[in-house]
Amino acid sequence: MGLGFWLCSRASRLKLVRIPTEVRRTPFPITLSKRLPLLHCLYVKIDLQITPLSVIFDTSMKSPIALLLLLFSVAQAHAEIPNVSQSVACVEEAIQSFPEDGLSAGDDLGWHKDINEMMKRTGGKLNEADPKFAADWLLQMGATGAKSKLQTIYEVADANDMPPQILAGALSEESSMADFGLSRDYGNWSCGIGQLNLLEWCVWANSATTKTKNEIAWPTAEIEYYLKENQNRDICSAAFIRSALAKPFYVLAMKRMQAGDLSRPEFLLTSKYISEPTTLSFEEAAPMLDWVRDKKIPCKRRNRQNDECLEIQPSLDEAKATHLRYSMAKSFTEHCGEHQYGIPARGRILRSIFDSLPEEYRLNKQNTDSGTYSRKCLHEPKFKGTPLAVGWLVTEAVYNAGEEILDGLAHYWHTEHRRIDDVTPDGFLLAMENTIEKEKYKKRLDPVGRCEGEFHTRNLIKDMSLPGATLIDHLFPPTAECRDIIEKYHASAQAIL
Predict the structure, then answer these.
(1) With bands split at pLDDT 50, 70 and 90, how would you rate the model's confidence at 23?
(2) Domain span at residue 456?
(3) Does residue 308 form part of some domain?
(4) Which of 317, 337, 357 is the last residue of a domain?
(5) In angstroms, what is the C-alpha Rg of the chain?
(6) Are 405 and 441 in contact (CB under 8 A)?
(7) Nearest in space to 379 (alpha carbons), one of 177, 115, 165
(8) Could you tell me what percent of the chain has a pLDDT over 90?
(9) Which helix (H) or strand (E) holds 172?
(10) pLDDT digits 0-9 by tens, 191-205
(11) 194 and 278 co-located in one domain
């Protein structure tokens, strides 16, 4: 905010202005090198045409300089109210694609500039010995199948009545839109464009259409038979399965992928190494599946479907239960790397979280200051509202940080006298930062989720913003504390599995 920020700061420090508490506050982005203590005058939202000046400043104030400073600050703030909707890109502008796909009107949007540079440098032929190979591979894989990914994103967003930018941003944050295969993910054993684990895959697959279940070889008949003998069991609960049930398939695939070259990195592991030439047999997998079932794993990631928080409940026939777990893990590991399944699965998980939120979030579709989204995209979404509606930003935050973050967000907005409909993306991030830094809420949150929750949602907003948009501050890297927490978690998870 430059001069306006300096004037506002000086006026506040010299106590030349007094902003009464009845004036409603709305956050504005602060584009500084680091976040400074927020000042009242940066939050004034006022329409000078209809609001008496006596409401804004103390009429007994005699200093003409103070009046000038205040009016300049208010005018500057009013002029920079971010038009949230018009600052958000269409999905096709924000995701990776090749120039020949014709999805983006400009090469300077989103990832397209990086892809163009990579294609000019490599001609599309990547070399694993190249120091830039990992980054180039990620760009190339993210852009591969862009048309199909885009169509699926729009279809899934419409089916779940959600903003397509939220879904696309979540996928971009997890995988940069690449169809990853299975990875250890430090004990989460995630896979695909949505980086889902087995429990999340199960929730989606079990509610999928018959056609989809057949395509992914979901063991429907085996599940029905098991539930007849073990009634009222939730087979997608951590009381029955673990994400680590994917481990034996991963071990086989890594051996195949690294045959003759143990230096090949994990990210090159795709689903073909699991199913070709043959898949892992039940007899080969059973010993490790039983080990995972019986392993007592500390509860570390409450925000990912309580995967390690519940003990496995016994079944009437443990042999049949083990075979069912094998069949479920086989379906997951063989098909989770295909975006036509990974995108619907991630959309289903986000929708289920959204449906569990308090009503005030679920009713939120339009931010007060956002305006109508009028950008002409390749597809007109079913969702009629702000593309970055706060209810859906909260959904993504809960996915990464856990539902424990809700109390902190609600408390922050209550103390700031702010309605949910008044919260802009930057205001949402202010609430996130306030929550994860307060000791009261910090203790409730999973350490890794606390760090990832704010960082993921910040990047989502940035990824879905048009170039030059000022919806939020520039991206802040994880703090030293968060880096230390994540590194320690990674080390402990690797030791366990």
Answers:
(1) very low
(2) 343-496
(3) yes
(4) 337
(5) 25
(6) yes
(7) 165
(8) 39
(9) helix 164-175
(10) 999 999 999 999 999
(11) yes
Residue 371, token pair as written in the block:
């305006």
Q: Please say which residue of 25, 46, 81 terminates a domain.
A: 81
CA distance 14 to 296: 61
**Are the C-beta atoms of 327 and 224 separated by less than 8 Å?**
no
For residue 252, tell me if it sits in a domain. Answer: yes
Which residues does 380 contact at the CB level (< 8 Å), separation at least 6?
A: none
88 in a domain, yes or no? no
Q: What is the DSSP letter of 83?
A: -
Spatial distance between the Cα atoms of 466 and 84, rounded to a whole number of angstroms: 11
**Does the structure show a pLDDT above 50 at 337?**
yes
Residue positions counted in the chain: 497
Residues 383 and 287 in one domain: no
Question: 296 in a domain, yes or no?
Answer: yes
- Both 388 and 331 in a single domain? no
Same domain, 271 and 372: no
Say whether both 320 and 367 belong to one domain: no
Q: Which of 129-133, 182-186, 482-486 bottoms out in mean pLDDT, i.e. has the lowest?
A: 482-486
- Comparing 82 with 185, which gets the higher pLDDT? 185
**Residue 277: CB atoms within 10 Å:** 6
Dihedral of the alpha carbons of 191, 295, 275, 146, in degrees to the nearest 10: 0
Q: Domain tally for the chain?
A: 3
Average pLDDT of every residue of the chain: 77
pLDDT tens, position by position, 198-254: 999 999 999 999 999 999 999 999 999 999 999 989 999 888 988 889 999 999 999
What gap in Å lies between CA 147 and CA 154, rounded to an integer?
11
Q: Within this chain, do residues 6 and 61 fall inside the same structural domain, yes or no?
A: yes
